[in-house]
Amino acid sequence: MEIILKSRITEGLRILYNSEVSDDLVQIHETRKEFIGDFTLVVFPLLRFSKNTPEKTGETIGRYLMDTFPSVTGFNVIKGFLNLEISPSWWISCFGGMLAGDDLLGKCRSDDPETILIEYSSPNTNKPLHLGHIRNNLLGFSLYRILSACGHRVIKTNIVNDRGIHICKSMLAWQKYGKGETPAKSGIKGDHLVGKYYVLFEREYRKQADVLIADGMDPVEAKNNAPLLKEAREMLVKWEAGDPETMELWNMMNSWVYEGFNETYRKLGVDFDKIYYESDTYKTGRDIIYNALQEGLLHENGDSSIWADLTDEGLDQKLLLRSDGTAVYMTQDIGTAVLRHEEFGFDRCIYVVGNEQNYHFQVLKAILKKMNYTWSEGLYHFSYGMVELPEGRMKSREGVIVDADDLIAEMIETAREVSLELGKLSDFPGNEKGEIYRKIGLAALKYFILKVDPKKNMTFNPAESIDFNGNTGPFIQYTYARIRSVFRKAEEAGITFSRNISLTVGAGAKEIQLIKLLRRFAFTVTEAAKTYSPALIANYCYDLAREYNQFYHDFTILGETDQTVRDLRMGLSEITGKVLSTGMLLLGIEMPERM
RNA sequence: GGUCCUAUAGUUCAAUGGAUAGAACGAAGGUUUCCUAAACCUUAGAUCCAGGUUCGAUUCCUGGUGGGACUACCA
């Protein structure tokens, strides 16, 4: 409609003022609620063509549209805004399309589908996942759903950071203090068990350093000379050399961790098409760097370390291989990127990684460009904000952390408590109830995180549990459950409805309002894909649920005696339910039939 | 020092450069013989500061101030 109006207006301006007006000056948007009308034309930009006051210009254009365009049934001009009223029958017929089974996301399909690789999660194998990872996983997975909905081929990947000194720390601590403890024996989830030894290492290591400092050693030196750290370094050397015993330990403990991670991923409802391991890709990175060095794209320092000079890009020198030939983080990321491009030939590669690594990705892109990989243009760092506690950042080394598994369990438990308190689902068998609590608890968590603009830091206060009322996931689920309930009741009563809504049905303002909002869904999804923002969809779903709840409260649906009106209201309920569940699915949130 | 991000009710979040800045939580009050009250309705409450561009700025630009991150031969 906006497009038609726009072309009509452009045409009108040609006739009325003999002026060719460029497209972007004809600004049309939906009329704000507090004014009468459906669409609004901003007339200010057109004054230079009309050479008249905003009021007169609006009047003239409004009159022209009334006379030439039957769908426009009225207009008013307020302070330079021309509000156009569109005939209800246009809205009804627009809604009729949705009811007839038009693909809700049809308008989102890209004309130019791309292959998009998306990396998210990226855990270290020395400790369990925490709230920061939850935000990462949810954003990554939701972007996957959104971009897929827009017709792209999207590949979900994970890169596991399974090598480095931090892994050796937990291995060493387990070797020293573990007494053969395993997940099976202790009943502790694998990733938590390994995490326990990581924390233990840090504690013992700090004790040793403190002793050295007490003996009069310089603090920096003491931290470097603590026996435990030396042992960990030796272990890393053994690992790099492929020492069988070390490798065996490494494999065993990693397998525990992966089992633990998989459980968390499953609970969270995310998955991957392809998992890369840093222990594989760093070697590729090293080879690539040696090649690039030979081609003269990189340079060697006096101590035989290898560097990229990025001063042309306004960046610094960046180390790529240490003087002893071992790899750094960047080395591995270069390898991974090249491997991925060889394997998938992506158009875009989206890295879902926190904003603390903005510089890293700027450098990564610059280095790949310097190495003449033209596809590096398609790399995009989806930089999201940190999740902070009221006291500040989470610190895993100090145990100031919100554990992912604990939080998920807590949310489900809270869902159960709230439900019991409200006396819901009392006639349900236990296992079905459990499934609903799970959906609700996860929805609360996921929505809480996804409704926030990704690039902003957000605060999580463990003391105040996540809400279940107001602008929340359960609120939207509740709206959906209500709709389902209406249809169950309709079935019981033998009420069916016709999807051929009469164009002359007596639709009220609230019904039209809902139609307008429903119509905006596809636009919102497109916008969310363009701006990489699941938050837009979350907030849209909330608006729609609120609008529907008002409607539901003020009007009867099944009790309506005028059948054409009842058809319309049932139709609105059906589409609202579909849009809500489709929208929430794009966020990775499931909807319960009852709650 | 340099680079990047950010600043909106008491709190947590919204607002393609458009009209009277929206919600939620919290506070105060109200709605249930009727399709699920996890709902609905009232009331009180906010754009960090100073300039600039514009018919119009929460939004764009410049400069301050506050918060965060990065600037490792850690990952």
Structure description:
This protein is α/β, with parallel strands linked by helices. Among the domains are: 2-86, Arginyl tRNA synthetase N-terminal domain (Gyrase A, domain 2), CATH 3.30.1360; 162-272, no CATH class; 404-586, Orthogonal Bundle (Isoleucyl-tRNA Synthetase, Domain 1). It has 21 helices and 14 strands. It has helices at residues 2-17, 47-50, 54-68, 88-99, 131-149, 165-177, 183-186, 190-214, 219-225, 227-240, 244-268, 278-294, 329-344, 358-370, 404-422, 430-450, 473-492, 509-519, 521-530, 534-554, 563-586; strands at 27-30, 39-42, 72-78, 81-86, 115-119, 153-160, 274-277, 299-300, 306-309, 317-321, 348-354, 379-384, 387-388, 458-459. The strands form 4 sheets. The protein has a 5-stranded parallel sheet, sandwiched between helices. α17 (473-492) packs antiparallel against α21 (563-586) and α20 (534-554) runs antiparallel to α21 (563-586). The radius of gyration is 30 Å and the shape is globular. The chain starts with a helix and ends in a 9-residue tail after the last helix. 40% of the residues are buried.
Describe the structure concisely for a colleague:
This protein has 595 residues and is α/β, with parallel strands linked by helices. Helix content is 55%, strand content 11%.
Form type:
globular
Helix content: 40-55%
Number of helices: 21
Share of residues in strands: 5-15%
CATH topology of the domain at 404-586: Isoleucyl-tRNA Synthetase, Domain 1
CATH architecture of the domain at 404-586: Orthogonal Bundle
Largest sheet at a glance? 5 strands, parallel
Strand order of the largest sheet: 7-6-5-11-12
CATH superfamily of the domain at 404-586: Isoleucyl-tRNA Synthetase, Domain 1
Total number of β-strand segments? 14
Structural class: alpha/beta
User: Rg from C-alpha positions?
Assistant: 30 Å
Average pLDDT value? Answer: 91
State the name of the first-level CATH class of the domain at 404-586: Mainly Alpha
Straight-line N-to-C gap: 38 Å
Low-confidence stretches: none
